[in-house]
Known about the structure:
Keywords: Membrane, Transmembrane, Transmembrane helix. This protein has helices at residues 2-7, 9-20, 23-43, 52-70, 80-97, 102-108, 119-149, 154-188. It is an all-alpha fold. It has one domain. It is globular and about 60 Å long.
Amino acid sequence: MLSYLRTFLPWIAFAVISTSHDSRYGALVGAVLAVLLVAADRRKGRPWDALIIEMTSAAFFGALAIAAFAVAKAPLGAYGSAVSDAWLALVAWGSLAIRKPFTLGIARTMTPPEIHDSPIFYRVNAVITAAWALSFTAMAVVLAVLVDVAPHSTGLSIAVKVAGFVLPALFTARYPETVQARHQKAAAR
């Protein structure tokens, strides 16, 4: 679970810094963290398909930082947090649409190679990616509504962000074990 939270560190930093300080610096810190994560993971030998979120994070925050410093203080306005979650939702749903769930590459780094081509392995990762995609989508919608309905509800926005990352991370940690136990039970019959 901690590896998933590490993956989303640029997004968490962006949310915290943008909420408490200035979105320009939130975008800049997000970009720097994303690039550092990609570089560190590549040095460790992680394959590119295990770095989908990190690479798209670097692209998103890099573009946002450039826009923030070149064009306007907050190019996304008050909707920065909602837009960033919408971006993650787009990446997650897009990876499912092309049948390459973003969790697949990550899971391959943590599992024995003999199960990588298993339909169950793919299905588990498709379900986990869908859980993340749903969470990102829900966060984007809820945060966009909060901007309109209660724009100064920082505490509620933070709670939405925390829940939006922690709940799918917990699901990610537990779901494979549940599927494995179910298959072991079925095989024992």
